[in-house]
Amino acid sequence: MLRTTFTELVGCQVPIQQAPMGGGVVAPELAVAVSKAGGLGMLQQAGVTPLADRIEWLQRAGATPFGVNFVPALGQGDQAEVELAASRARLVEFFWAEPDPRLVELVHAGGALAGWQVGSLEEARRAVGAGCDLLAVQGTEAGGHVRGTLALLPLLASVQEVVTVPVLAAGGIANARGMAAALAAGAAGVRVGTRFLATAESGAHPEYVAALLAADGEATVLTETFGVGWPHAPHRVLRSALAAAQAFQGEVVGTHTVGARSRPLARWAAQTPSREVTGTVAAMALYAGQGVGQVTRVVPAGQVVTELAQGAERLLGRWSGATTPR
């Protein structure tokens, strides 16, 4: 299998990180399946159950290694929770905030690796300067919230010129060819989101999954419209979701229910529709990257990991006569 500086540092078998998507769409079962298949399964700090319970569930299920993601812009990054994650997870990473040496120090003190997802060359420099062990470089092709303004390959090339830590490529990667291209361009691994939504272990609402399967590569748009709860933050969604929300009559588009507790979901809410959501799902924030046209069927997450890794390895061998990228 493919070995890179990322797999050696983190301890996984293949250079694939499952993106830690929010809103409950990354069920613990998904992170477990990815880790057991040889990749790096990830949890998002926010979830339908407490972070401590989800981490314990992963550990009992034998998910090794795994990581936890925090979004300080949403009030995540509480010291106690960062310390908890750092004491249990192999990687603790952050997104949508200025790289903070204090957070990195907390992670290292707990024994974990510290990572940051960045959207610009300058942010990459600051993250390395803050002490991060690895970076995820996000291009504008990515689904969900998009930090920068450059496409993946130009950003990846510029970042690799100035940093020495392992760099993951994120944005629009949904098949083996995309993964192979990123590795051939020098990435130490890939960060995959949209493809993992259409898996048996995904927590995404079935109508959301169906919309992904029906979409082609031109079906997404970068907007700031779904900003209730996370304003002024560009994000990539399906065009169909934008159109449906514009046509929706009323200000409450659905309900999110966890146990005995329910809360309304506003039209234009930033929350992704999980299985716990009811209402007009088609008019909710259906995040998707530009690789969505390559997502055509629901399969087990472990199969996605295997198909990506083995397919990328074959392509790299065909292109260069070598099976292991630098």
Structural account:
This protein is an alpha/beta fold. Helices cover 35% and strands 19% of the residues. It has twelve helices and 14 strands. The strands form three sheets. An eight-stranded parallel β-sheet has the order 1-9-8-6-5-4-3-2. Strands 7-11-10 form a three-stranded antiparallel β-sheet. A three-stranded antiparallel β-sheet has the order 13-12-14, with no helix packed on it. Helix 2 packs parallel to helix 3 and helix 8 packs across helix 12. The longest helix is centred in the C-terminal third of the chain and has 20 residues. The radius of gyration is 18 Å and the shape is globular. The protein starts with a helix and ends in a 6-residue tail after the last helix. The model has no long low-confidence stretch (mean pLDDT 95).
- Radius of gyration, Cα only, in angstroms? 18 Å
Name the average pLDDT: 95
Residue runs with pLDDT of under 50 for 5 or more positions: none
Q: What fraction, in percent, of the residue positions are helical?
A: 25-40%
Total helical segments: 12
Largest sheet: 8 strands, parallel
Shape: globular
| Strand composition percent | 15-25%
The helix-strand sequence is HEHEHEHEHEHEEHEHEHHEEHEEEH
